[in-house]
Design goal:
mainly alpha
């Protein structure tokens, strides 16, 4: 068995375990933009990284299953765009910071939604 196949199986296994643990856990609410702004700069950056890492995980699971769920494909498009355009961590965090600052009316919205919209200009 090739190294790539072993890695894909490992990633798939971890993803399944993660999904199973989420199903057993009580539902959590996403952080709002206002809550996110109260975090330290390092914690804000880590949160944004976590959102993007979650999207990457969804994309990897979708690819491994060969499924093209429209709800996940939209994240695949953003992940691919950021990768193909070599948009680095600092630019991503700066874009989210600026978007939240410039859109005070949206601070009550969930941060994953805010991150998604804030990254739109990179992918147009």
């Amino acid at each position: 068995m090739s190294h790539r196949v072993r890695v894909c199986r490992w990633v798939f296994g971890v993803a399944l375990l993660s999904i199973a643990s989420l199903a057993l856990a009580s539902p959590a609410e996403a952080m709002t933009g206002a809550e996110w702004q109260r975090l330290t700069p390092a914690a804000r950056a880590a949160y944004v990284d976590g959102v993007i890492d979650a999207w990457v995980g969804l994309v990897l699971v979708q690819e491994s299953l060969g499924n093209k769920d429209a709800g996940i494909t939209v994240f695949a498009e953003v992940v691919t765009c950021l990768r193909d355009r070599l948009v680095g961590h600092d630019k991503i965090v700066t874009a989210v910071e600026k978007y939240v600052e410039d859109q005070p009316g949206l601070r009550s919205k969930d941060m994953p939604d805010i991150v998604f919209v804030a990254l739109g200009p990179f992918c147009r």
